[in-house]
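User: Please look over both lines:
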Amino acid sequence: MNTPELLPLSPLWDAGWYRFAGRQPSPNFGPRPAHATINLIVLHSISLPPGQYGGKEVEQLFTNQLDWDQHPYFKSIQGMQVSAHFFIRRQGELQQFVSTLDRAWHAGVSSYRGRSNCNDHSIGIELEGIEGGLFDDRQYETLASLSAAILQHQPIADIVGHEHIARGRKTDPGSGFDWARLQRSLGLPNRFLPEGLGAIS
């Protein structure tokens, strides 16, 4: 009996692109500073229009294809050029827009633990949702597996929300995000999370 040849497993990462994410390259990125250490994950929430899920508007925003006349809210963000490395839909589907080796435009004016310009050294992950709202179980599952893969690939020291690096300016992902759940799924000590949110001693 012939034994089938085993094919080698594909690597999880290819030049900063994650194997298990759909790829939608965004033009909104740039190089990281020389010798930048990628040691921060920043979590966001987004939906377009706010509170409406399942459409293509977020992907269109990140790829500069959003029709500003499609909805009255879009006029308030018209001309904005932004991106994140990853976007996790309500049902857990994962899309990637920028290689993790490059600098996505997600954090804006920001600072954490004495380091400013968090885009320089962070990976941005957007969750489909609203600030303060709850997130789907499938999103947590995808976020946990993605975060674990990033932790194995980069020297991540902190996982924070946009609200923690842009205090007074941003409030996402907000009170509806379960930090303890993410922490437990990754088995991380409290020092990886913003102060006061850790649940593992």
The chain has a mean pLDDT of 94. The longest strand covers residues 40-46.
